[in-house]
Amino acid sequence: xxxTAGSMPGTRSVRLTLWILxxxxxxxFIDRQIVNILAEPIARDLKLSDTQIGLMTGLAFALFxxxxxxxxxxxxxxxxxxxxxxxxxxxxxxxxxxALCGLAQNFVQLLLARIGVGVGEAGCTxxxxxxxxxxxxxxxxxxxxxxxxxxxxxxxxxxxxxxxxLADLMSxxxxxxxxxxxxxxxxxxxxxxxxxxxxxxxxxxxxxQSQPAALPLGQAVAEVMRSRAFVLLLCAGSxxxxxxxxxxxxxxxxxxxxxxxxxxxxxxxxxxxxxxxxMLGTWLGGYLADRFGAKNRRHVLSAPAIGMALAxxxxxxxxxxxxWPLALVLLFVPTVMNSFYYGPTYSAAQGLVPLRARAIAxxxxxxxxxxxxxxxxxxxFGMLSDWLQPAYGAESVRYVLYGAALLGLVPAFFFWRCGxxxxxxxxxxx
Length: 430
Known about the structure:
mainly alpha, Growth Hormone, Chain: A, globular
């Protein structure tokens, strides 16, 4: 729900909320991405196939994450729900389950622990997006959501460096435990420090006097899906996530198999390239969206469309490079360009739906992004790698990544098509 102008939180409160939510999202992606850098040593220890790696890193997590995302978002959209406390409970759960991953003795146990991580993380981003959108004016929303989205590259960077280093120094089991436990302490900070602006007049809310009634779930989803621009945004974001999650998992494995790097070396060097490039691209995407979108709102999505198209040839060159240092250097610019979409995508989604369906909009977008992207991306690329192994051996991953790079044209097309619709639909929303 949107706060009224008179009840908008102060600048200090907004900044504190954004910084804490950023730290939470960093922990979110540390716990989500650490499994990628640890996938190869886990596979050797537990004797897993590439398909099983894909299930472990993707579908096991994503299935429960996506299924639970919408009902949790529905709960978050209720006027009486404290979104910070919801986020705190979710953070504590997924952090504890990450630590439990280190105790797994076989594939099934590890799969169940990753499912638990997915259950917990389902309660983070939809209420966070809704909270930020209520606290920040529309003119600054892309930048605010891009700032929150910095948690993706920062968390990925930290997860890879910390996870890879711990795997080299200790084992993948200790890495999970050490990374997971601090999130439980952070959950207490979120619970006691963050405030929900719509809870300022709790008595009035309980009487139903200051907040409109929440939309029924079916009506909320129908409102969200009625927007043609939102549907195009779903296609664009889902395709981008499919490639992003798939490439992240298998690029880490590519550097270990093709270029003979250790998990710690991959975590450090690929983590730095992916993290710094992702941070720059995420910030720049939000900045460009706010600057050029203010003049013409179709340009909110121009940077993602152009960036993803231009990234294709450089990504192909990177995966073809004969040495790992050259491959890493060539991957930096595509990483920047492929990260343009985070802030603009979520900002556009929030603007295309009614105020009372913001968390549902975020959850719907994340449902498709994570089910198709996180759930199917690593799994599809793993199955394709197994299929190509008889012909290409360890180089099968390189050929999988060639195809992934070329497919970057698909989300570029959908972002461009969605941009053409933004002016008309956002004008209708006022």
